[in-house]
Amino acid sequence: MILEPTLQALTFDISTWIITTFFLVTIFLLYCFTTYSHAKTINKLENLICLRTEDLLKEKSKAENLLTRVLPRNTADELKEHGRVNAQKFKMVTVLFSDIQGFTKITDEINAEELIDQLDKFFYQFDTVVDKYHIEKIKTIGDAYMCAGGIPEKNRTNPIEVVAAAIEMMHHMREINSQHSQKEEIWELRIGIDTGPVIAGVVGRNKLSYDIWGSTVNTASRMESAGEAGKINISENTYILVKDFFNCTYRGKMPVKNKGDIKMYFVEGILPNLSVNAAGIEPNSDFRIELQLIRLGDLEELILEKLEMGLPQNLYYHNLKHTVDVYTQVELIGRSEGVTKEELLILRTAALFHDSGHLIDYSTHEEMSVKLAYEILPEYGYSQEQMEAIAKIIMSTKMPPKPQNLLEEIICDADLDYLGRTDFIPVSNMLYKELHEHGKIGALHDWNMMQIKFIEQHQYFTNTARQLRNVNKNNQLANIRKWMEEIEKNEF
């Protein structure tokens, strides 16, 4: 009788436990299933987002590639960053217009597909020439082709580069015509060029395009329309800037609205001494070096601006003035020593860069200067061989100087030119102050003793520097010794 309630209670407890366990397991399974379903849904959504993001990135990449094809890179970058592009004024741009003589008549007589195919071949070749000379293609309208040099990057060489490109374009058209049979239509090209100020910017909202405006554009167009088939007609503005490179023939004046009468010249070709085989068509190495010497002005502006804005304030000696001094002195010594034009180009370039490494690091500035030179010089048309020579010249300025050739001797003499100048004492003091602040030298007395020893052992390498500076250098040495003797007497 006592066991019966106990068994009933035990049966009830087991049943309750089974029900409770079943209920908890069911809830757990439902939770697991819900969690799995939720995770599966999230995974699907994440995959979908990844696919959509990938599609968006592809479309973004396509849009950016399209922008860089139809707009200059700097302009495209500005548009991507700010959503708009401000119009720019350029003081010296050379604009080229080309047009096919009698094109309207040709379109009436030739098959449309053949016409487009031939135009495409012409303009493809023109594009190749334009890229070669770093000229900006503006647009084509029918048979008209328009390009301009000096945009979007300003430069001094654009008149010469555009005229050289025009000669190649004209030569290409003549070659095509020479391959035609007598029955085939001859395509005659007219080219007009002017140099002057323009305004450049992006036009359009849905279909963007880079364009230029101004009287220079109008005059270039007039030069083309007033030209002759097979001829390159340039304005006096352009002629003045290119006459040392090209053989030009004066052909009279033409009235231009708001400009009066403008003198015109036909470009007959590159000067014989500046062209391959004196043929007047392809520039030779002398042409390229003369062009680089002009382009050096753009490089000079870039590097001196970087030094002025970026050099640390505690460079009392290795400052902008020192670079300008060395840049000036290498040309003076180089000309006196009879170096070639290319050697002078290499020397002056090395002088511009020789202390630019101070923008990066003080102790290894020569190596950093070489690094900067290799990064920047390709944009200015320097060959690998020229850059290697420049790098060696820069490294030759590392103390103590051990030049291996005349060019290295010239820059080493220019770098230590102050030793024989009348301003030696103040310059020497600035060098001491700089070295002292950078932890390279201790007391002033130690510095002066070091200077005496260095000057006693130092010899200029070139005849020019010895003639210019040796006398003053010896005088400065005597002055330092006398000054040191007086200090020692006062101390006793």
Description:
The chain has 492 residues and is an alpha+beta fold. It has helices at residues 3-70, 73-82, 103-109, 112-132, 158-178, 215-225, 236-242, 285-310, 320-336, 341-353, 365-376, 384-395, 406-415, 424-437, 444-457, 463-491, and strands at 88-101, 136-141, 144-149, 188-203, 209-213, 231-235, 246-256, 260-270. Strands 1, 2, 3, 4, 5, 6, 7 and 8 form an eight-stranded mixed β-sheet that branches. Helix 1 (3-70) packs across helix 2, helix 10 (341-353) crosses helix 13 and helix 11 runs antiparallel to helix 12. The radius of gyration is 37 Å and the shape is flat. The protein starts with a helix and ends with a helix. The model is unreliable at 66-71 (pLDDT under 50).
Q: What order do the helices and strands follow?
A: HHEHHEEHEEHEHEEHHHHHHHHH
Shape: flat
- Please report the distance between the alpha carbons of the first and last residues: 129 Å
Task: State mean pLDDT (0 to 100 scale).
Answer: 84
Helix fraction, binned, reads 55-70%
* Number of E-state strands: 8
Could you describe the largest sheet, including whether it forms a barrel? 8 strands, mixed
Instruction: Give the uncertain stretches in residue-range form.
Output: 66-71
Q: Please state roughly what percent of the residues sit in beta strands, choosing from under 5%, 5-15%, 15-25%, 25-35%, 35-45% or over 45%.
A: 15-25%
The computed structural class is alpha+beta
Summarize the structure.
The chain contains 16 helices and eight strands. By secondary structure, the protein is of the alpha+beta class. Strands 1, 2, 3, 4, 5, 6, 7 and 8 form an eight-stranded mixed beta sheet that branches.
